[in-house]
Design goal:
This protein is mainly α. About 95% of the residues lie in helices and about 0% in strands. The chain is rod-shaped, with a radius of gyration of 67 Å. The model has no long low-confidence stretch (mean pLDDT about 90).
């Protein structure tokens, strides 16, 4: 504060009184400002506490959501494993059935091959018999041809004798 100056001038006294009054007002404004600042800081602390609570809630929510997603992922994985197991079982059954079918088809083709072998054997026997018969017929034709050649030779000899004798 300012030191009191004693003056006889009424203007100075009025100014001094005005300065004192203004100083009191400034002091009161300073106190009010300090109170306002203190109250504002308290309110900011409350806001910070609320933000901390909100952050905590978000963290908890994040943990909850992560847990839920992990649980869901585990359930989905289990279901896919079951589906994979079912596909593997189906594949094993299909392979087994296919192998059985293939074995049956192979057996039937073996029977068909055996039947074709029998038919081939019959044709071979028939061919052999036919060849034997044709060989006998060829032998007979050869005998007949030789007889005819001999007869023609005798006729020619007889004609030659008749021509020379006459």
């Amino acid at each position: 504060m300012t030191q009191a100056i004693v003056s006889t001038d009424p203007n100075v006294a009025t100014l001094q009184e005005s300065v004192r009054h203004n100083e009191k007002n400034i002091d009161r404004l300073d106190r009010d400002l300090k109170d306002f600042r203190s109250e504002t800081l308290k309110q900011f602390e409350k806001v910070d506490q609320r933000f901390d609570k909100v952050d905590d809630r978000f963290e908890q929510l994040k943990v909850d959501v992560d847990d839920r997603f992990n649980q869901l992922e585990a359930k989905v994985d289990q279901r896919f494993e079951k589906v994979d197991d079912r596909f593997n079982q189906l594949e094993a059954k299909t392979d087994h059935r296919f192998n059985q079918l293939e074995a049956k088809v192979d057996q039937r083709f073996e029977k068909v091959d055996e039947r074709f072998d029998k038919v081939n054997d019959r044709f071979n026997q028939l061919e052999t018999k036919t060849d034997q018969r044709f060989d006998k017929i060829n032998d007979r034709f050869n005998q007949i041809t030789m007889l005819l050649v001999a007869i023609v030779g005798l006729i020619v000899a007889a004609i030659v004798k008749l021509v020379f004798l006459s």
